[in-house]
Amino acid sequence: MSYFPLPRPARIAVMASGRGSNLEALLKAFPHDNPLGHIVLVLSDQREALALQKAVEAEVEAEYVPWPKSRDQGVAYQTGREQFEQVAGQLLHDHRIDLILLAGFMRLLSPAFVQAWQGRILNIHPSLLPQFPGLHAQRQALEAGVSESGCTVHFVDAGMDTGPIVLQRRVPVLPGDTEETLAARILEQEHQAYPEAVRMLLAGDFR
Ligand code: GRF
User: What pTM does this model have?
Assistant: First the structure.
């Protein structure tokens, strides 16, 4: 059974580590008066993330949640990931979040966390998965010499960029492309693909 569609607007949280251009596209697509859903919370593991600023500008609650470097602290030892997930989990609960969108969130969440949000947590990745998971997807595509790349919106599971695919958008790889030119071409598609995938999910058009 799918969690969506809901009989009310979905409450969405975005997790982002960096510049937040996907966040911006999502904020535009899901403002407070969108009947399908709206973004009510933005979390970042980076205090200086531009994404947090963009959330504030859009008058959406923005929270920095540290992901501390793990070091041995004796009996009460918690890894950085455990600390992040505990605080983030509480915020998600307090804000009655229905759906989490990872948008340039550069951390791997634990299997237990991801399991608890199964079917309600999406990610966007700048390649045509299952090709080129992980870091530097655009560089990987150029090095592999493929003639086409793109982006993928997928459900998050315990693996790295491995969950079921919701939708993909393709772009050509052109002669003379650099990592930057290819990344920019893909990013343009990301900004359309992510809102589109979220719309499909919230409307119950994706099972
Ligand atoms: C995007 O290319 C996204 O696919 C990847 O990280 C980048 C984030 O960019 N996961 P931005 O922070 O949304 O601008």
Answer: 0.96
Q: Examine the pLDDT at 60 and tell me if it is beyond 70.
A: yes
Does 16 sit in the ligand 1 pocket, CB within 6 Å?
yes
Can you list the domains of the chain with their CATH numbers? 8-117 (3.40.50.170), 123-206 (3.40.50.170)
Which of 19, 22, 27, 43 most suits a substitution to test ligand 1, by most atoms within 8 Å of the C-beta?
22
Query: Is residue 121 a contact partner of residue 156, using CB atoms and an 8 Å limit?
Result: yes
- The single-letter code of the amino acid at 53 is Q
Count of C-beta atoms within a 10 Å radius of residue 134: 10
Active site residue 125: yes
* Cβ proximity of 127 and 149 under 8 Å: yes
